[in-house]
Give the backbone structure.
Amino acid sequence: MNIRIKKLDDYGRGIAFVNGKITFINNALEDELIEYRLNKEKKKYNEATALQIFDLHKDRIEANCPYFFLCGGCQLQHMSFSYENTFKVQKVKEILKKFSKIEVNNLQIISKSPNHYRNKVTFTVNKNKLGLLRAKTNDLIEVAHCKLIHNKLNKIVEVLKVLLTKETGISKIMLRIGNKTNEVMISITGNVKDTASFLNLADSLIINGIPMNQDHITSYIMDKKFQINHCSFFQVNDEIVECLYQEIIDIIKNIHARKVLDLYCGVGTIGISICPYVQEVIGVEVVKEAVAAADHNKVLNGAKNISFIHSKVEDIIEKLPREFDTVIVDPPRSGLDSKTKKVLIELKPTHILYISCDPITLARDLKELKEIYRVESVKLFNMFPRTYHVESLVFLKLNDEVKL
Ligand SMILES: C[S@@+](CC[C@H](N)C(=O)[O-])C[C@H]1O[C@@H](n2cnc3c(N)ncnc32)[C@H](O)[C@@H]1O
């Protein structure tokens, strides 16, 4: 049986209809004719595998990885990079329209290299096998090389595979590399018998949360220097993060922001980057180690007009000084909680810059914020090429009548 793909869903899967029921098919592009096998039949939808593809889409390409659709790391290797960018633009436009009734014309997406961009990867280890997990399962797919990660991390994978022939007590290995410094962090969970071999590989080796040498690596975003420890967030794509931060700096300069809140600030990267252009920044972050790194990064960059608070945003937002004109929010995937949104609407800062890695929660939050804010601009950043994820930056301005 063959079916024709109508369009792609938000995860890059082909959508078709089998006896009227929506059916999701991996590795299928718009208008392609697919010979399929159903592998999941649910009440409301089916999932299917493509067995043969006819009427190939003009942007279909040969997947550039032997583990594609096996390891769960990426989903879009079968389409050209330009098609991927168009897909992401279309997806965010549709989500914003559907969930927040916001129409964005001429939505721009900034993209750089689609390969070897990731500065961080976490492998699962099972006995002497190192790999990634098949999507939505605990099945370990052994990998020898990953097209998405920094080439130096791939070289470390080669050495790890040799070391792991002797090691059996490790369950996870996280690798991270610093931009410009090329310093490597290895963070291991499990029982490590041969610490010395790992020490040779890493500028910072962490075993079960305990540093065996340096507790951090250093990375750069533009001309700013940041120390990162093993439990703090740091954006994974060094090239794109610079484009994103440049856009944030441009907006901050344009609006002459003075007092800025940097909510969900991680190790202080955004706040410290905008310090030279504003009077004062306060950052808020829940991870204690990230706040300690942020305090250190402030000194490292000679930033005198920023301070950090260790707290959940929702627990502190009402107690913060009220005279902030600009609020930057960069929440996790879950977006803003209802209390934070409510207080933002009460506080009415003139500008909000919302950085989001999930367009659905972004659209949900914008629906509420747009009661008193208008969208000045939306820009996309392809922070996660070859996956369905995309980063958005939305710039909001308080409606004039609310200000009065
Ligand atoms: C997407 S990251 C952004 C970090 C930082 N702005 C950056 O660009 O590197 C989200 C951050 O929010 C923190 N976080 C998550 N929930 C939080 C909460 N309820 N209150 C404060 N921080 C939170 C996470 O630890 C993480 O550092």
